[in-house]
Amino acid sequence: MPEPQTIKIDPITRIEGHGKVTIKLGSTGEVEEAFFSVAEFRGFEKFCEGRMLWEMPTITSRICGFCPVSHHLASVKAAEALLGVEIPPAAKKLRELLHMGQTIQSHALHFFFCAMPDFLTGDTLTSLPQRSVFGLLQTNRNMAQSAIKLRKAGQDIVDHVGGGRLHPVTCIPGGMSKPLDNFSRVELLRGIMAGVKIAQMAVKLVKDLYAKNPASFTSFASFPSMYMSLVKDGKLELYDGIIRLVDEQGAKVCEFEPAKYLEFIQEQPDSRSWTKTPYFLPKGSQGGFYRVAPLARLNVAEGISTPLAQVEYQEYKMLGGGKPLEPSLFYHYARMIELLYAVERAKELLTDQDILDTEVRVPVKRQAGEGVGVVEAPRGTLFHHYTADSDGRILKANLVVSTAHNKEAINQSIKSVAKTLVKGGEIPEKSLNRIEMAVRCYDPCLSCSSHAFGKMPLEITVESEEGKVLSSYKYGGS
Amino acid sequence: MAEVKPPTPTHKAPSRVLVLGVGNPLRADDGIGLLLVDRIAERFGPRVKALTLFAPDPTLSEELAETDFLVVIDAYYGPLTSAYTVLELKPTGSLVPEGGFVSHIFDWGTILTVARELFGGCPEAVLVGVRAGCFDIRESVSPSCMKDAEEAYEYLVGLISERL
User: Fold this and answer.
1) A 52-81 residues with CB below 8 A of B?
2) pTM of the full predicted structure?
3) DSSP H helical segments within A163-241, as ranges?
4) Any chain B CB within 8 A of the CB of A157?
5) Residue B155: which H helix or E strand, with range?
6) pLDDT at residue number A449
7) CB of A43 less than 8 A from some CB of B
8) CA–CA distance from A381 to each of A104, A265, A386, A459 (Å)?
9) Which of A56-70, A172-186, A445-459, B38-52 has the lowest mean pLDDT?
10) Which of A24, A431, A474, B130 has an alpha carbon within 20 to 30 A of A169's alpha carbon?
C-alpha cells in the first residue's frame, strides 16, 4: 500500500503572484485534501495605519500591478464615505470609465495571455514555451494582434483618465484631479470602437471552444456554492450598487449596502496561507463559502445593461437553464461577456458629452469617521474600509480583496480536478497543468491577497506524510 | 552672372519619436528613466510622444510599429565608467524571449520583433542607460545618479533634436 503523499505545485504559473498548491493523498493514494496557499506576506493594512486618508488611493493602488485602478477606486470611495462627500456627476462617469479601462485590459490580458494558451496548444506540460503567450504569438498571430489592440485600448483609458499607464493618481477625495479633454475623448473612442469588434470575437472564441467540447467545460471543477457581487437595479454592475448573494439555485440569499458588509462577511485566518478566508457570516465558516468574479457576477445578475453583452448573457444563461452555472471553466466564458460589457460601457461613457464637464471636484473637510468603499474588481468584489481620526490619520484599514473571497472555491476546484487525475499516488505530468488550469479560472491575484513578485517556474514536490520528498518536478523559469 | 542653382531641399518630414521612461519610482535610482522622460516631454512638448512604464510591455508593440525612432531611458545597473551608455536595440527575430517563456519578463528585442511581425513596422531604437547604483525602497534618486542624469539629459536632447 503506498504511503500517504503530499503533492505540491509551487509556484503556480500564469497567474499574478506566487502561490502554491498542495494536494494531500491518503494512504490509499486517493486525493484527501487540496489547498491553495499564498506564499508571501505584505501587510498593507498594518503599515497604512498612521498615513493620511487622502494618501490612501495612491498608496493602495501600489498593492497590485494588475488591478491598481480597483484599489484606487475602492480606496477613494471609502475615503469619501468617511468624509460624507458626494462627487460631481462627471467625476463619477470618469471613474467608471477608468474602471472599464482596467477591466478591459485585465480581462484581455488574462484570457488571451494566461488562459488561452491552454486551449490553443493543449493542456499538457510537454511544450511549455508553446503553452504560453509566446506560443500564442507564434501560432495565432491574428488573435495575438487583437489581444494587444484590445489591451491597449483599455490601458489608454487608464493612462488618459487615471494619469498614468499603470498606477492611477487622479481620483482624490472629492472627485477627480483633472477633467477629460475632447482630444483624449476622441482618441480613446477610436480604440474602443475597434475594441467592440474584438470583444465580440473573444466571446465567439470562447463560445466556439465550448461548442467544440461542452463536456470539457461542464465536467471541469464543478461544485455548488453561493455567489456574491454588486448589482444595480438587479443588473451587472462593476462600479456601484448594492451587494447581493444568491444560493446554488440562484435564489436570493440577501442584499445589503456595502457599508454593512461586516454584518454579512467575516474573515478567518488560515495557518496554511497569508490570505485570510472570508465567509458568509450567517452560515458560519463551514457552510458560508461563496464565489466572486465573472462567473459569480453573471450568476447573481438578472441582466446586463449594454445591448451586445445582454444578448450574449441570455444565451449564456440558457446553458444553465436559468440556474447558476457551476463549472469553473465557465469563468472564462463569463469573463469574455464582461469584457464585451466593459467595452460597450466605455463607449457609452465616451459618447456622453457630460463626461467633458470640467466640474469634477468638490472641496472636502477633514473629519473623524469610518467609511467603506466597494467596487467589482476584475477578480471580484473588493472592499476598502477605513477609520480615521479628526486630522485624517488612518487608525484602522481593512481590505477584503477579490482573490481572498475565492480562496475556498479555488481549493474546491483543485480538489475536484485532482480527484479525476491523481490515482493511487501516481502523478501524470499532464495533470499538473490541469490543476493549474483550475486555479487560473479564477484569475487569482496574489499581490492583492497578500504578496507577490514571483519567479514563474513550476515546481512540484511529492512528499510522504512525514515530509520526506518522494519526487519532484521543476520546469522553466528564470 | 552665374546661374544660381536653387537650394537643394533639405526639409523632410519629422520623425515620429517615442520616448519611453522605464523604471519603478519607489526603488530609488530605478526611477531615473521616469524623471528624465518627464523633462524630455517638457522640453519637446507634442513633438515627441513620451510615456512611462515599469517594464517592457508587448502592448506597446502596435505603437512601436508606428514609430520611426524609439528612445528607451532606463537605469543601468552594472560597471560603467561614464554617466550613461547608449545601446542599439534590434529585433531578435524570435517571438520567444531569450530569457525563456516566463511571461512576466519581456525584452526590447522581442517586443520589436512583435511590432514587426504583428504590426508591420519596427523603429530604429536605442536604449540610454543611466548609471545607477541604489535600488533601495525609497522615492528619491541618489545624488550621484541625478548628476549622471544631467549628462544623459544633454545627450538625449541632442539625440532627439536631430530627428525632429
Assistant:
1) 62, 65
2) 0.86
3) 182-212, 214-218
4) no
5) helix B143-161
6) 45
7) no
8) 17, 12, 17, 30
9) A445-459
10) B130
> In chain A, which residues have their Cβ closer than 8 Å to the Cβ of B100?
129, 476-478
Eight-class DSSP state of A425: T
Q: Is there a contact between B61 and A148 if contact means CB atoms under 8 Å apart? A: yes
Q: Are the C-beta atoms of B65 and B120 separated by less than 8 Å?
A: yes
Q: Rounded to the nearest 5°, which phi and psi values hold at A463?
A: -125, 150
In angstroms, what separates the C-alpha of B8 from chain A's closest C-alpha? 37
- The pLDDT value recorded for residue B26 is 83
- Strand A226-232, strand A458-464: pairing: unpaired
Share of chain A above pLDDT 70, in %: 82
CB distance from B93 to chain A under 8 Å? Answer: no
Contact with chain A for residue B35, Cβ under 8 A: no
ipTM of this complex prediction, to 2 decimal places: 0.76
Does the beta-carbon distance from A145 to B119 stay under 8 Å? yes
How far is residue A160's CA from residue A156's CA, in Å, rounded to a whole number? 6
CB contacts, 8 Å: A114 with chain B: 103
Tell whether the model's pLDDT for residue B59 goes beyond 90. Answer: no
B36-58 confidence digits (pLDDT tens): 999 999 999 999 999 988 888 88
Write the single-letter amino acid at B141.
Answer: V
Q: What share of chain B is helix, strand, coil (3-state, %, to 5)?
A: 35, 20, 40
Q: Which residue has the cell 547604483?
A: B133
Q: Which of A14, A105, A165 sits opposite B52 (nearest CB)?
A: A165
